[in-house]
TrEMBL record:
Monomer. Associates with the 50S ribosomal subunit. GTPase that associates with the 50S ribosomal subunit and may have a role during protein synthesis or ribosome biogenesis. GO terms for cellular component: cytoplasm. GTP binds at residues 206-213, 231-235, 252-255, 318-321, 363-365. This is GTPase HflX. Residues 200-385 form the Hflx-type G domain. It comes from Gillisia mitskevichiae. The gene is hflX.
Length: 413
């Protein structure tokens, strides 16, 4: 039913509010991300509407005057979609739809839509479909008026509660069916994971678009799809990687995002199991992104949600080639030296203070510091392996001891 939503919303407007909890700077950051999400889903943002308010209006989210501005703009520019940064209540959705007379989406909806477009395998399709139905269930009443309006009044006297109830039942049945299907898939995947034997498992985790798949391709010589859009990866890829003579399993999986819809986290259980069962996490960060610290926060939050926040973790700061230092001019005595002006060196020091030597700065694109990366991963995986199989110790010597031999081998190839 909602495998792929139609992408007719080329022209869109974004709407967000500045509240006591959410400063103007934060809102702009969030709207930048929302615009990127819109672009990924196939839309183009014509204008952003923002409003300062104590708290969002329970009926129309933004104020009535503001919504009239939006309505006029939408009408004049033939805009098909209004996208809100926050999740709207079913009632708000219904009221706003009535006023604006166009498609209303919120962040969750947009993310679900992108996921639906990206889902390739039966597993991820089922996961997305389940999340979509769970999102839909409390909103059915609102949807119904939508249909009613489209079809016009004749022969469509207001839908009685019974019709909405029937719809609800259909959706609930569908949900339990999908859950059963996922249970079967979960079991199969569990067996598959079990069959992978005793190899150490390493998982790439991180915010969406930070370069996880690119890094996977560099170290495993695989060809995982990577592109400059959000959620390029939905389906998990597992590759056996050998660094020097040490084999381990590397998993590339779905990226995280701020306010990841809970329906998605829940239904992506089998995908996230790869993370949950990993022995080592490589937390990839895009250090060239102005909000990378917020991204780290969101990722840690999601890891905590899936009870994977206490695993051995290496922080990998990627895209150092694109990092731009915002230097303060020497004669500028007013601007305060804050994190916003940190150099790469300062970031390195800051993170080493927090994480010891489990911190790397690389560029997967330019292959910068990849040797250091390989060495660190080798040593950490080796440590985990030896802890598990103490008698296997001799098989995997220190990294340096075998460097030359292997380099020669590689040259021969
Ligand atoms: N400048 C620069 N760009 C990079 C680097 N690594 C990856 N990229 C680019 O960043 C974009 C996203 O890369 P992906 O590998 O798809 O990122 P991902 O983390 O797998 O993203 P999702 O699967 O969407 O979560 C692509 O356009 C890459 O070319 C890097 O070291 N430097
Ligand atoms: Mg990816």
């Amino acid at each position: 039913m909602i495998e792929k939503n139609d992408l007719t919303y080329e022209k869109a407007v974004l709407i967000g509010v500045v509240t006591q909890k959410q400063s103007e700077d934060k809102l702009n950051e969030y709207l930048d991300e929302l615009e990127f999400l819109t672009y990924t889903a196939g839309g183009e943002v014509l204008k952003r509407f923002t409003q300062k308010m104590e708290k969002p209006n329970p009926k129309t989210f933004i104020g009535t005057g503001k919504i009239e501005d939006v309505r006029q703009f939408i009408e004049a520019n033939n805009v098909g979609t209004a996208i809100f940064d926050d999740e709207l209540s079913p009632a708000q959705q219904k009221n706003i739809e009535k006023i604006l007379n166009c498609k209303i989406l919120d962040r969750t909806n947009l993310i679900l839509d992108i996921f639906a477009q990206r889902a390739q395998t039966s597993n991820s399709r089922t996961q997305v479909e389940l999340a979509q139905y769970q999102y839909l269930l409390p909103r059915l009443a609102g949807m119904w008026t939508h249909l009613e309006r489209q079809r016009g009044g004749i022969g469509m006297r207001g839908p009685g509660e019974t019709e909405i109830e029937t719809d609800r039942r259909i959706v609930r049945d569908k949900i339990s069916l999908l859950k059963k299907k996922l249970e079967t898939i979960d079991k199969q995947m569990g067996v598959q994971r079990g069959n992978r034997g005793s190899l150490v498992r390493v998982a790439l985790v991180g915010y969406t678009n930070v370069g996880k798949s690119t890094l996977m391709n560099v170290i495993s010589k695989s060809e995982v799809f990577a592109e400059n859009k959000l959620f390029a990866t939905l389906d998990t890829t597992v590759r056996k990687v050998v660094i020097r003579n040490l084999p381990f399993l590397l998993t590339d999986t779905v990226g995280f995002i701020r306010k990841l819809p809970t329906q998605l986290v829940e239904s992506f259980k089998s995908t996230l199991d790869e993370v949950r069962e990993a022995d080592l996490l490589l937390h990839i960060v895009d250090i060239s992104h102005p909000n990378f610290e917020d991204h780290i926060e969101s990722v840690n939050q999601t890891l905590a949600d899936i009870k994977s926040n206490n695993k051995p973790t290496i922080m990998v700061f990627n895209k150092i080639d694109a990092f731009v230092e915002d230097k303060i001019e020497e004669d500028d005595l007013i601007t305060e030296h804050t994190e916003a002006h940190y150099s790469l060196e300062e970031w390195k020091r800051t993170w080493m203070n927090r994480m010891g030597d489990n911190v790397l700065f690389i560029s997967a694109l330019n292959n910068d510091n990849m040797e250091e990366f390989r060495k660190k991963v080798y040593e950490t995986v080796r440590e985990i392996h030896i802890k598990r199989f103490p008698y296997n110790n001799l098989l995997y010597p220190e990294y340096e001891a075998i460097t030359e031999e292997i380099t020669e081998d590689q040259e021969e190839e």
